[in-house]
Amino acid sequence: MEQHNARNISVPGPDGQMLTLADLPSPNILRWVTRRKAEVVAAVSGGLLSRKAACDRYSLSEEEFETWEKLYSRHGTKGLRTTRLQQYRR
Predict the structure, then answer these.
(1) pLDDT tens digits for range 7-44
(2) 3-class SS of residue 25
(3) Distance between CA atoms of 43 and 4, rounded to whole angstroms?
(4) Could you tell me which of 74, 25, 77 has the C-alpha nearest to residue 54?
């Protein structure tokens, strides 16, 4: 019963829409676009997933996820672009 209720919990996403676990990217995602990264960061910051659960679910290292969090908090969704990574890391 608790697990079913956990699926109904929602948190604000990067675009203002509410996110649930069902709205998150598939665990076997191969191509990470900025929107998907931002959704995962928003899910963790909103308490929908723990950082460890997100890293396990998406096969991310702690360092990679931490980088996403820092870039998102400083620069928003645009900071998660791989083409701008060098510019935003300075």
Answers:
(1) 458 999 999 999 999 999 999 998 999 999 999 999 99
(2) coil
(3) 17
(4) 25
